[in-house]
Structure formats: structure tokens, C-alpha cells
Specification:
alpha+beta; Beta-Lactamase; 4 strands; rod-shaped
Length: 290
């Protein structure tokens, strides 16, 4: 096995270990950053919905003209937040916001199976104030962020205890079987924001491939340069010395001396080789004179 082959094998092993380590670390870091980006987007959507609820209560509801036997859904915070998010969905259809409930007043807010699981999680673990996770969707994986909807204000029960005590206008719109039987302190639903992960993950994967491709290109360049330097500075001089030693071993002392330029180990070896050759030539000459 030649010196160059040994050197290249060591270099390949080192590169493989380095590339594997870099790939693992960079992939995990980029994927984590992608998940963090999605979670920040979900958090912003949740805060926007909460702000819209507060705006409805503080700025919209007090200025709505109440007409007898008329129910205005715009006065309901959940309705306002949902409508704003639905407007956003016109340009971002994969982003969703829903105030899901097991027994909602508005049927469009009825929880699906996976949403009901989240609500039951909040009902079973009252100390849990937020829940995040991922789930598969037809357009790819999506991250959800959920917070419980709990009845903390007794005024809410005026509309949601039973149909007989609820405003007749509301009963007329939503019927007598929707959104009643709520209790103070009960978790009746959850605010759920869903944000697609496809785009951030694709960006993370693209960045990973670019990084690994750049790293591989750097290695190939370094590999070529090191092999050229190895050939020029070590392999070629060593082969020249080996060829000279072979010729001297069969008595050919008329070969020119090796180049001794430089102060590295190869130059020192060339000097030693030339000195040995001169000594051998003198010794042979003395033998011939005798």
C-alpha cells in the first residue's frame, strides 16, 4: 500500500466522521429552528385572536345598537376573532384558528375528533394552560397551539345555562340545543391555532442540502490540493530517491546529486542521501586504488 493511498484513506475516514457529525448537528439545529419559527407564528396568531376578543369586548360591543328581538353575533368575542382569522385564510388557507367547543352555541365551532381530544386534555388536567404538538394534514404536517376556554365570568352563564333563560333572539338564531348547560369554572372548549410546517421544513432541508453540498465541495477542493502537495513535496522526491538508490545499488555512481533546496525533512533526507552517496563513491575509489 503506497504512501498516497494510506494518506487518502486516513483523510477519507476523517472526512466521513466530520461530515457525519456536521450533518447530524446541522440537521437537528435547522429542524429545531424551523419548529421554533412555526411555533412563533402560532403564538402570534393566538395573540392576535386574543387581541381581537379584547377589542370586541372593549371597543365594539359597547357601541352596537341593541334592537329588541335581534341578536348581533358581532358582539360575541369568539365570533369577531374567528371572522378576522377567516379573512386571513383567504391568502393563507393552511393557517386556521378555531374556538372549538364540545357543546358550542354556533355549530361551526363544534370540535372535531382531534380537537375534542385537546379539550378533554384540558378538562382532565386543569393545571395545563397550553398545549402544542404536530399532526398530519392533507397538505403536510401542521403544528397546533391550544389554550383552554374556561368559564370564569358568571355573566356568561346568562346566555348558556339553559334555553329558557337565554336571550330569545340568540335562541332563535342558534336553536334550543346548542351551547347550554355550561357551568362556572368549566373548560368548555379550546382556542386552537394551526400553522403549516411544510414551508419552514422545506427551507430547513434546502439550507441543509446547500450546507452539506458546500462542505463536500470544500473537502473535494482540499483533497485535491493536499494530494497535489503530497505528490509534489513528498511522493515525487521519495520516488526520485528510491530510483537513485536502486541505480547506486547496482554500481551506477554517475547519477546527479539530488536537489537539497529547503529545510524540511525531505530536504534533510536528500542531503543525507547525497552525503552517503559521496562517502560510498570515495570508499569505492579507495578500494580501486589499492
Amino acid at each position: 500500500m503506497g504512501l498516497r493511498l494510506k494518506f487518502n484513506l486516513v483523510l477519507l475516514v476523517m472526512f466521513s466522521l466530520g461530515l457525519g457529525t456536521s450533518a447530524y448537528i446541522s440537521y437537528e439545529l435547522l429542524q429545531r429552528n424551523a419548529r421554533d419559527e412555526v411555533q412563533r407564528s402560532a403564538g402570534l396568531m393566538m395573540e392576535a385572536a386574543l387581541s381581537m376578543r379584547a377589542y370586541t369586548v372593549g371597543q365594539v360591543r359597547p357601541h352596537l345598537r341593541v334592537v329588541e328581538d335581534e341578536f348581533l353575533p358581532q358582539s360575541v368575542p369568539a365570533f369577531g376573532a374567528t371572522e378576522i382569522m377567516n379573512q386571513m385564510r383567504k391568502t393563507h388557507p393552511d393557517y386556521t384558528y378555531k374556538e372549538a367547543a364540545l357543546n358550542p352555541t354556533n355549530p361551526r365551532n363544534r370540535a372535531t375528533e382531534w380537537e375534542a381530544d385537546i379539550i378533554n386534555e384540558f378538562r382532565n388536567f386543569s393545571e395545563r394552560k397550553e398545549l402544542a404538538g404536530t399532526r398530519p394534514t392533507p397538505s403536510g404536517p401542521s403544528m397546533f397551539l391550544a389554550r383552554p376556554l374556561q368559564i370564569k365570568d358568571g355573566a356568561c352563564l346568562v346566555c348558556h345555562t339553559n334555553a329558557n333563560t337565554a336571550p330569545p333572539a340568540m335562541v332563535k338564531v342558534y336553536g334550543m340545543n346548542n351551547g347550554y348547560g355550561w357551568k362556572l369554572g368549566e373548560v368548555i372548549g379550546a382556542q386552537i391555532v394551526s400553522v403549516p410546517m411544510t414551508v419552514p421544513i422545506e427551507k430547513a432541508n434546502h439550507a441543509f442540502y446547500v450546507f452539506m453540498g458546500s462542505l463536500a465541495a470544500v473537502f473535494v477542493t482540499v483533497f485535491i490540493i493536499l494530494n497535489a502537495m503530497l505528490s509534489l513535496l513528498i511522493v515525487r522526491p521519495m520516488r526520485t530517491m528510491a530510483a537513485a538508490a536502486d541505480r547506486i545499488s547496482v554500481g551506477a555512481l554517475d547519477i546527479p546529486e539530488l536537489a537539497e533546496s529547503g529545510k524540511d525533512e525531505v530536504a534533510l533526507l536528500a542531503k543525507s542521501f547525497n552525503r552517503m552517496r559521496r562517502s560510498l563513491e570515495k570508499a569505492l575509489r579507495l578500494i580501486d586504488e589499492k
